[in-house]
């Protein structure tokens, strides 16, 4: 009980099975180091899958969803509440700029990182 009063997460009796110990450490790390939750929005399948694959290699990031257009990005952002949305600007239907506006109006906590094929700022 003293350990719990000192804010220890939990306690286990010795001897503890290695598999149980590893599982408990993993659970503890998930509590301490929460992963950055990412939504990927891009209408090009290859780009979307490539970004997803890249982020999946990062231990501190988790892709929580993908969207193929702005409308789906808005819906999923409001439903999944990611920390970050990686947003393509040019998409069919609702573009990334309008989707970003709607996402940011709905939740100030969600950050948006925009991707564009354009080199100059006047097209952004």
Description:
With 124 residues, the chain is of the alpha/beta class. Helices cover 43% and strands 19% of the residues. The chain contains five helices and four strands. It has helices at residues 2-5, 18-32, 45-56, 70-80, 96-106; strands at 36-41, 61-67, 84-88, 111-115. It has a four-stranded parallel β-sheet, sandwiched between helices. Strand 1, helix 3 and strand 2 form a beta-alpha-beta unit. Helix 4 (70-80) packs parallel to helix 5 (96-106). The longest helix has 15 residues, at 18-32. The protein is elongated and about 60 Å long. Mean pLDDT is 80; it is low at 1-6.
Count of helical stretches:
5
Arithmetic mean pLDDT: 80
Order of helices and strands: HHEHEHEHE
Query: What is the number of independent domains?
Result: 2
Largest sheet: 4 strands, parallel
User: What is the percentage of strand-forming residues?
Assistant: 15-25%
- In CATH, the architecture of the largest domain is 3-Layer(aba) Sandwich
């Amino acid at each position: 009980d003293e350990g719990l009063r000192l804010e220890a997460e939990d306690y286990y009796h010795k001897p503890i099975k290695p598999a149980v110990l590893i599982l408990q450490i993993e659970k503890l790390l998930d509590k301490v180091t929460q992963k950055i939750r990412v939504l990927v929005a891009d209408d090009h399948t290859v780009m979307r899958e490539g970004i997803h694959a890249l982020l999946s290699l990062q231990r501190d990031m988790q892709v929580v969803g993908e969207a193929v257009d702005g409308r789906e990005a808005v819906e999923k952002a409001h439903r999944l509440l990611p920390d970050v949305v990686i947003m393509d600007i040019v998409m069919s239907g609702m573009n990334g700029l309008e989707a970003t506006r709607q996402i940011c109006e709905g939740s100030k906590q969600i950050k948006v990182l925009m991707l564009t094929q354009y080199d100059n700022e006047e097209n952004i």
